[in-house]
Amino acid sequence: MRLRRLPLKGALPAAQQSRIRGGRLVLNRKEFAMYTQAMDQQPKEERERKPVRSVEEVELERRFDAKIDAGDFIEAKDWMPEHYRKTLLRQISQHAHSEIVGMLPEGNWITRAPTLKRKAILLAKVQDEGGHGLYLYAAAETLGTSRDQMIDALHAGKAKYSSIFNYPTLSWADIGTIGWLVDGAAIMNQVPICRCSYAPYARAMIRICREESFHQRQGFDSLLVMMRDGTPEQRAMVQDAVNRWWWPCLMMFGPPDDQSPNSAQGMRWGIKRVSNDTLRQKFVDATAEQAKVLGVTLPDPLLKWNPEREHHDFGPIDWAEFWRVVGGDGPCNRERLAARVKAWDDGAWVRDAALAHARKQVTKQEAA
Ligand code: ACO
User: Fold this and answer.
1) Helix/strand/coil (H, E, C) string of 71-119?
2) Among the atoms of ligand 1, which is closest to the Cα of residue 94?
3) What is the dihedral of CA 341, 343, 344, 348, to 10 degrees?
4) What is the pLDDT of residues 279-308, one digit of tens each?
5) Cα-based torsion angle of the residue sequence 254, 256, 261, 265 in order, rounded to the nearest 10 degrees
6) 227-247: buried (b, 16+ CB within 10 Å) or exposed (e) per residue?
7) How many CB atoms lie within 10 A of CB 264?
8) Is the CB of residue 260 below 6 angstroms from any atom belonging to ligand 1?
9) How many Å lie between the centroid of ligand 1 and the Cα of residue 190?
10) Residue 188 CB less than 6 A away from ligand 1
11) How far, in Å, is the centroid of ligand 1 from the Cα of 92?
12) What is the pTM of this model?
């Protein structure tokens, strides 16, 4: 039988330390007594404040790290460090809120779509975004926080959602541009999350990415029709929309890597697979070529292919604007939050009716 020593250092000679035998913890009483005695000697307040990790926890964390290193998935029922759970909850709930708030700028245009075909496409797309939010809330719930708690945090202004949805949709061309650029940026960021170490999130992302690809295509197609067959005014409308959405889309990927407080740990745990700056660069490289096909100009005089780097160089991003929007002071932050809260309040009767129906079903089943 293979014995493995636990990483308790300096307490006792190696031969007398606690061990894992056949996957079970075998404690050496003397060592454990020394360990707990040391805890007892701490002042009471300190003992209450600092959670001391048990030998079991240390071993569980070691196994967790080994799984991450081996590229294995973590399932909801698996042990995980509290910080991993919180990091995932933060990211998945923000992502879910983004999908739900993201329905608003496009939803504004459903009644104003220019043709029946475009209206049907937009309706389907906005419904898809609602579905993405629900998959993601469900994935986040597996981490022990209810959807109601997450939604309360959003409505109280305590939870973030993507900065991009705080910009207004001023013309029909904004709808095509959201599909092409916003959903294009979203896919770039989300395809690597299909390999996220947390399996329920990764599974949700596979389906979401398939639908996002359709969203990006329909946006590009809508713009292409206007650029190819449209009037000069329609072409100008497309160019104006691209001018307004380009820079906020580059901000969607988050702050530069050296100013991103969560990146190092997120990458270490395989929650993030590719860094903010790398994804941003990939997005610029892909869209610069697509812009040529469309016949629009990206609003950056410094955008240029760099043959040495084999990437496009691009101009500086206004990070002050990004932080302003993230901090709640973007063009539409207040409007978006107010619309979400109103939709929640207006939908109260639906939730009440669904609960009443569910209760009746249970009573019927119990009586049968
Ligand atoms: N909008 C709002 N907040 C942002 C944005 C953004 N575009 N980018 C970064 N932030 C926030 C982060 O959430 C973090 O704040 P927090 O610590 O209070 O949570 C802070 O800025 C610093 O950023 P990072 O350290 O880089 O944060 P992180 O490592 O979580 O990376 C990122 C941010 C890239 C957005 C990551 O969370 C992610 O990949 N999320 C999943 C994808 C997603 O949410 N997409 C939503 C938009 S796409 C759509 O819905 C169609």
Assistant:
1) CCCECCCCCCCHHHHHHHHHHHHHHHHHHHHCHHHHHCCHHHCCCHHHH
2) 44
3) 140
4) 999 999 999 999 999 999 999 999 999 999
5) 90
6) beebeeebbebbbbbbebbbb
7) 12
8) yes
9) 12
10) no
11) 10
12) 0.86
